[in-house]
Amino acid sequence: MKIKEFKKKIEEMTEQELKIHGNNLKDELFHLNFQWSTGHLDDVTKIKQIKRNMARIETLLVEKRSGVFWKKRGLKQPESENKSGEAKR
User: Fold this and answer.
1) N or C: which end of the chain has fewer CB within 10 A?
2) Which domain holds residue 46?
3) pLDDT given for residue 77 in this prediction
4) From CA 62, how far away is CA 89, in angstroms rounded?
């Protein structure tokens, strides 16, 4: 998947979906690292791609929690996105 497509896809996700997707990427990274350590991984660039995608998801989560995501796009923050009123991690 291309970077622009991936960014657009994750921007449309809710915080819960982003957390789930991030956890799936962590699992995939674990398995890739295991394959790499045993010498069975053919394409080591997948590890770098997974790490970058995890960072993109984490950045987006922080932006959504703090309200920066909505301000950047000139949108009003939905009430369901900001239940606590402050950014928590």
Assistant:
1) C
2) 16-72
3) 72
4) 8
Q: Are 60 and 73 in contact (CB under 8 A)?
A: no
What is the tens place of the pLDDT at every residue in 20-78?
999 999 999 999 999 999 999 999 999 999 999 999 999 999 988 887 776 777 777 77
Q: What is the DSSP letter of 77?
A: P
Cα–Cα distance, 66 to 89 (Å, whole number): 10
- 37 within a domain of the structure (yes/no): yes
For the chain, what is the largest distance between any 2 Cα atoms, rounded to a whole number of angstroms?
A: 49
* Domain harbouring 42, CATH code: 1.10.287
Q: Domains in the chain: how many in total?
A: 1
The 3-state DSSP class for residue 75 equals: coil
